[in-house]
């Protein structure tokens, strides 16, 4: 893969120095020692699990023409030092977690949106998102940070959501039990309570019996 195109080399090139370690499972940071490869023409580390910042030391690769770091987990800002690569004609930093302003100057003024796609927190030319707006930069949270937030939320005591849910649940259950009690059998305490309030209701049957006997 050279500058975004598949090229088949029939023999080992003696004039082109390239390193292609793409589509592996490499992890960790990009080595700063790559700056010592002064004759490097192409560097492709795409489709791996590399993380951390892009080393500013890569700006010392004066002969580099193609740099592909796409589809990794790189974070931080794009180093301004990369604009020193005057021969860079192909750049792909897409599908990472890069943030901040895209450097301008030199060859960086020739790259299009495709070079930065998938980095939601990048801003500036050539992207439509301008820097300095009210939008806050989104910093992806780790699973540990999200778990800590959830734990602190529930350990802070009863929340208004739990109070509302408990109240509604108790109201539904109480209504069902109340209706069942009066559907099949009146509770004794209920009958006794109303007999104490309205005792005359129990005396009427006695009067009716006395009339029938007379």
Automatic annotation (TrEMBL):
Annotated GO CC locations: plasma membrane
TM region(s), chain numbering: 164-182
Compartments it resides in: Cell membrane
Bilayer topology term: Single-pass type I membrane protein
Keyword Repeat on entry: yes
Pfam families in alphabetical order: LRR_1
SUPFAM superfamilies in the cross-refs: L domain-like (SSF52058)
Keyword Transmembrane: yes
Chief place of localization: membrane
UniProt keyword list: Cell membrane, Glycoprotein, Leucine-rich repeat, Membrane, Receptor, Repeat, Transmembrane, Transmembrane helix
InterPro entries: Leu-rich_rpt (IPR001611), LRR_dom_sf (IPR032675)
Entry's family note: Belongs to the RLP family.
Protein name: Receptor-like protein 12
Organism: Solanum pinnatisectum
Lineage: Eukaryota, Viridiplantae, Streptophyta, Embryophyta, Tracheophyta
């Amino acid at each position: 893969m050279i500058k975004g195109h598949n090229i088949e080399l029939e023999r080992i090139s003696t004039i082109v120095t390239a390193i292609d370690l793409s589509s592996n499972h490499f992890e960790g940071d990009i080595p700063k020692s790559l700056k010592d490869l002064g004759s490097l023409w192409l560097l492709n580390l795409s489709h791996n699990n590399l993380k951390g910042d892009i080393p500013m030391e890569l700006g010392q690769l004066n002969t580099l023409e193609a740099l592909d770091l796409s589809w990794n987990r790189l974070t931080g800002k794009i180093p301004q030092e990369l604009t020193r690569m005057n021969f860079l004609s192909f750049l792909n930093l897409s599908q990472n977690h890069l943030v901040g302003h895209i450097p301008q100057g030199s060859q960086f003024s020739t790259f299009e949106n495709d070079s930065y796609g998938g980095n939601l927190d990048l801003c500036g030319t050539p992207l439509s998102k301008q820097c300095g707006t009210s939008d806050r930069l989104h910093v992806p949270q780790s699973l540990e940070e999200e778990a800590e937030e959830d734990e602190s939320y529930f350990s802070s005591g009863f929340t208004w959501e739990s109070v509302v849910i408990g109240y509604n649940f108790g109201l539904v259950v109480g209504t069902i039990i109340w209706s069942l009690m009066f559907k099949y059998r009146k509770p004794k305490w209920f009958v006794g309570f109303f007999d104490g309030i309205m005792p005359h209701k129990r005396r009427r049957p006695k009067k009716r019996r006395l009339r029938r006997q007379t």
